[in-house]
Amino acid sequence: MNILLNGARIIDPVQNTDAPMDILLEDGKIARIGADILKSAKSKDSGKVKIIELAGMIIVPGLIDMHTHLREPGLEYKETIASGTAAAVAGGFTSIACMPNTNPINDNRSITEFIKRKAAEAALANVYPIGAISKDSAGSQLTEFWDMKEAGIIALSDDGKPVMNAALMRRAMEYAYSLGLPIISHCEDTNLSGGGLMNEGYYSTILGLSGIPGIAEEAMVARDILIAEFTNTCVHIAHVSTAGSVRLIRQAKKRGLKVTAETAPHYFTLTDEALQSYDTNFKVNPPLRSAQDVAAIKEGLSDGTIDVIACDHAPHGRTDKEVEFEYAANGISGLETSLSLSLNLISNKTLNWPDLIAKMSVNPARILNLPKGTLEAGADADITVIDPQLKWTVDVKKFCSRGKNSPFHGRQMQGKAILTIVGGDIKYDGL
Ligand code: DOR
């Protein structure tokens, strides 16, 4: 069935478009975009075109999350590929890249192929596997990059853990660059962060919880920037959480180095003050930081230092979170709240619409070399329709994700994805 999306405001940063227009989808592709397509579509072949009226809505290129944890294989009680991709489309994401820290780790072709097969069976969002940098993400031996690339990985990361060995990271960056695979670095010096439960600062002191200093992240950001410069390769810094990291990345970009970066909605929405509740849903790695860090993250988003807003969707089960703070797993189930939290950046004037959409679609596509992130004629019909006025309340019981671990449960939101189209097919319909 061909679809005509009629009367919405269309924002496509790639084409520099921000205007009311219609879009015609045919055979899984964007056939035409322009004013008044409705008339010709009606007269031509009205029976074969489903017309969807979208006055007051905003259409953007399908959102892409470059940092999702799907827990299959091995940890299906937290998330399956089917439940994770259902959460993705419900949150407005048409494509997700999934981190390799499953059980077993995605460190070889057979796991990559398994993930792709399961994603094809689920047939919801596009799933792009990320392969591990080191075998079992143990940090000592590189995986077979080429083999995994042939099987379908689009990037490499040991996310969840840092690559502590600088020599291994150097080789990883060199080999990955020659294969056109980006390295996504989880920046954490575990000698500095070891045993820490939350941000080191005022609140860790009064709560008596051991701290993770900002420098645990920043020392590794600095190291990876240096390795990227030394090897003349590129690196993408995952989940940036501190003012110091923003400063280092800003300087690196000014010097023309090939460094890109992402942050996640919780790092510009929450501070470590929230930990006073001892609610383990606020426990995440890197940890929630200070108000000054949050301000710096917003500045980094606004001035282009931070290229991407990623969910770092990290679903966990009740038994992982409903335990003493010390033993609780790190992570936030983010796919179904990310867009609405990010829309706050528009209302608080941190970003405008095209810049926000660039960070949630165009830039992840560019960094991961995906042929996505635009509404140009001929592109895949991956589309997110947003109702910017819709008011709703986060209720984890309604999440498609198995991970109900959200610190945003009960929060009032404005703005939501109401229609998610992948390859020309409606995969989520909240109209
Ligand atoms: O909070 C986190 N959760 N940070 C990570 O780096 C890993 C992730 C997970 O896999 O749960």
What is the name of the CATH class of the largest domain?
Answer: Alpha Beta
* Rounded mean pLDDT score: 97
CATH architecture assignment of the largest domain: Alpha-Beta Barrel
Q: Give the CA-based shape.
A: globular
CATH topological fold name of the largest domain: TIM Barrel
- What ions, cofactors and ligands are bound? (4S)-2,6-dioxohexahydropyrimidine-4-carboxylic acid
Number of helices: 14
Residue share in helices?
Answer: 25-40%
Number of strands: 18
Distance between the termini: 18 Å
Low-confidence stretches: none
Beta-strand percentage?
15-25%
- Specify Rg, calculated over alpha carbons: 21 Å
CATH homologous superfamily label of the largest domain = Metal-dependent hydrolases
Largest sheet report: 8 strands, mixed
Classification by helices and strands: alpha/beta
How many domains would you count in the coordinates? 2
Protein architecture, described:
With 431 residues, this protein is an alpha/beta fold. The protein has 2 domains: 2-59 and 379-429, Urease, subunit C, domain 1 (Roll), CATH 2.30.40; 62-367, TIM Barrel (Alpha-Beta Barrel). The chain is 32% helix and 23% strand. It contains 14 helices and 18 strands. The chain has helices at 37-45, 81-90, 109-122, 145-151, 166-178, 190-193, 202-207, 214-231, 243-254, 265-269, 291-302, 318-321, 338-347, 353-367; strands spanning 2-12, 17-26, 29-34, 49-53, 58-61, 63-68, 93-98, 126-131, 155-156, 184-185, 198-199, 211-212, 234-237, 258-263, 308-309, 383-393, 412-422, 425-429. The strands form 4 sheets. Strands 1, 2, 3, 4, 5, 16, 17 and 18 form an 8-stranded mixed β-sheet that branches. The chain has a 4-stranded parallel β-sheet with strand order 6-7-8-9. Strand 8, helix 4 and strand 9 (155-156) form a beta-alpha-beta unit. Helix 3 packs parallel to helix 4 (145-151), helix 5 crosses helix 8 and helix 8 (214-231) runs parallel beside helix 9 (243-254). The model has no long low-confidence stretch (mean pLDDT 97). (4S)-2,6-dioxohexahydropyrimidine-4-carboxylic acid (DOR) is lined by residues 69, 101, 159-160, 186, 284-285, 314, 330-331.
